Amino acid sequence: MSIDKDLLDRLMEGRSPGDLFGQTGILAELTKALAERALSTEMDVHLDEERADNVSEGCNQTANRRNGSSQKTVTTDSGKVVLDIPRDRNGTFDPVLIAKYQRRFPEFDRKIISMYARGMTTREIQGHIEEIYGVEASPSLICAITDAVMEEITAWQNRPLEPCYPIVFMDAIRVNIRSDGAVSNKAVFVALAVLPDGTRDVLGLWFQANEGAKFWAKVLGDLRNRGVQDILIAVVDGLKGFPPAIEAAFPQTRIQTCIVHLLRHSMNFASYKDRKTVAAALKAIYTAVDAFAAEMALTEFEDSDLAKRYPAIAPSWRRAWNEVIPFLDYPPEVRRLIYTTNAIEALNSKIRRAVRTRGHFPSDDAAAKLIYLALNATSNEWKRSVREWHAVRSQLAIMFEDRFPMA
């Protein structure tokens, strides 16, 4: 419903555009007037409900009624506003709009959380709040507001998951975390899953200084405890200890190494002038029609002058061969999706953008808080459905038959 233009003209009469904002601006006045009107309506409803309850229960006690008001200063988007909060004689009125012990409108808290999620430091948020709203927000207040999401994070980390995920991408980012007076570089592992309908979801975050089979057993055990019974394809970037751990937890899962990461690793050994030639030679391996043709292409590369010039490249492919060849069994539609972990790398780039402003975090929880908020702030981008999923889904349903979850 649009607001009447004549009413707006009357409100703005005698005022300049500069009189809109700030503690003495018209928005603050409107906030006060509308809030007090809403509180008065809440009180009317509360008293009516109490009277109705008394009648139904046959009570003869004196009906509750208004008992003046008390003032409360609350922080809003327009600054601080003094509200007249209505009171009742029985002291049973607890307003919904602004609860008894609440000193800030919820929208004000959401703005602080939004700024924090975008990587702004506590000091930057402080300055922004003071500059825009004329309100002094202490560091402890900002921490208290953002810390309030920790219960939400715990619930998210322990939420039930789907029984089967067609594809799960695993990757990590590095963050600096202070522990026992020293700053250590920890990996934060992220699991990005493709759901049966083609949409994506982050299954969780796991912190670890060093990866290994024991760590991955814990991660995969966590997924099992939360309801995951099967993963069709796990796309990873040579994670140490991952293959034996996933074989124990999900024995039917196919492990696929990220081809792009393997290519980048190979390019690190080649001089700049030879990189295009090396890339073309390696392309013959991962675009081969089947594993036999790929083996022939790799053998041909091993016998070439390029391999002799850069002797570390071919062995790196041989070491990862068991995780490369599953890729060659898939049709083109599936290959295009699992060829790279770019899907999760794009997600990680958004996380890195948020954590870049922090030199280090005081704890794992502090890092988890920012990462979780950053994920929520950008969810509309990374949760989008996989392109051409209908074609991929059809191929996966054929390949994995009764294991593929049908909606």
From TrEMBL:
Signal peptide: none annotated. It comes from the Bacteria. It holds the Pfam family Transposase_mut. Keywords: DNA recombination, DNA-binding, Transposable element, Transposition. Residues 49-75 are annotated as: Disordered. Residues 57-75 have a biased composition (Polar residues). Required for the transposition of the insertion element. Belongs to the transposase mutator family. This is Mutator family transposase. It comes from Donghicola mangrovi. The lineage of its organism: Bacteria, Pseudomonadati, Pseudomonadota, Alphaproteobacteria, Rhodobacterales.
